[in-house]
Write a structure and sequence with these properties.
Elements (H helix, E strand, L loop, with lengths): L1 E2 L6 E2 L34 E5 L5 E6 L3 E6 L5 E2 L11 E5 L4 E5 L6 E4 L3 E4 L4 E4 L2 E6 L24 E8 L5 E8 L3 E4 L5 E2 L11 E6 L2 E6 L6 E4 L3 E4 L4 E4 L2 E6 L5
Parallel strand pairs: 5-6, 15-16
Antiparallel strand pairs: 1-2, 3-4, 3-22, 5-7, 7-8, 8-20, 9-19, 9-21, 10-18, 11-12, 11-19, 12-13, 13-14, 15-17, 17-18, 21-22
């Protein structure tokens, strides 16, 4: 195994990027531990379309090598979504690993969080119809000369470790919520942050907790999940959900029994 020096996650030796934080593993080679070869994979990789009712739609086969996804494809064509660029993302299918990469698009490419994972300052998360950004690098205001508290959330006293920013058109901040220790929860009807008008948000959907110098995002068993905007290349695993614009896909890669 190769332990990432950035987040501490153990990665199989076939990967060149950390599965958790997405950062290169070149600096982590000193943590390499030999391991027996993984079970050989066979079959054709594909993206399965997920319909708005949660059922499955057409299955799009992926070729070995680089597959282009976007309005102009050609391998994965998404022609009816204004949030999808002509050349939006690539899916690089190798013998042992498959990488997903966003091509610098305005609206990004998102992968569903499985269980929990660390998120960093500036990461964007889609929950229901809402888009959020994590803000951790917040300078705390200096004490005022007359002892009065500063107006605004950053001047609030208490054990907070960051903010969750709700983004609107053009990534303008339309709401800001303090992330407090030990945990801040979000949901439609229950939690510290409420999204009561979004039917795609579960009653208790997600939580945010301080994790070292970062933040731990945890899905609380929600129906529709939390989607993290990818940075750089990330490895895809069988069953991962990928969000491109308003289109949801599930990645499939059969594993030999």
């Amino acid at each position: 195994m190769i332990r990432c020096v950035h987040c501490g996650t153990d990665n199989e030796e076939i990967f060149t990027y950390c599965l958790n934080c997405g950062k290169p593993l070149e600096q982590s080679m000193k943590g390499f531990k030999p391991r027996h070869a993984s079970t050989a994979r066979k079959g054709t990789c594909s993206l399965v379309t997920i319909r708005t009712d949660g059922g499955t739609g057409p299955e799009i086969p992926l070729v070995e090598g680089v597959n282009h996804a976007g309005r102009s494809g050609p391998e994965v064509v998404i022609a009816d979504d204004p949030r999808v660029a002509d050349q939006h993302a690539t899916i690089d299918v190798g013998r042992d690993v498959v990488f997903l990469e966003d091509l610098g698009t305005r609206h990004g490419t998102f992968v569903r969080v499985t269980g929990q994972r660390n998120v960093a300052d500036g990461d964007q998360i889609r929950i229901g119809h809402a888009l959020f950004a994590i803000q951790l690098a917040i300078p705390r205001p200096q004490p005022s000369t007359d002892g009065a508290a500063w107006l605004g959330s950053a001047g609030t006293t208490g054990d907070w470790f960051g903010r969750l920013l709700r983004l609107g058109p053009g990534d303008a901040v339309i709401e800001a919520h303090l992330l407090r220790s030990p945990e801040t929860t979000l949901g439609r009807t229950s939690g510290d942050i409420l999204l009561p008008d979004d039917p795609f948000v579960s009653s208790r959907h997600a939580s945010f907790a301080a994790s070292g110098a970062g933040c731990m995002l945890k899905d609380l068993g929600s129906t529709n999940g939390c989607f993290l905007r990818i940075r750089g290349r990330v490895a895809l695993e069988d069953g991962d959900f990928v969000l491109l614009g308003h289109h949801l896909f599930q990645f499939k890669r059969p594993v030999a029994s």
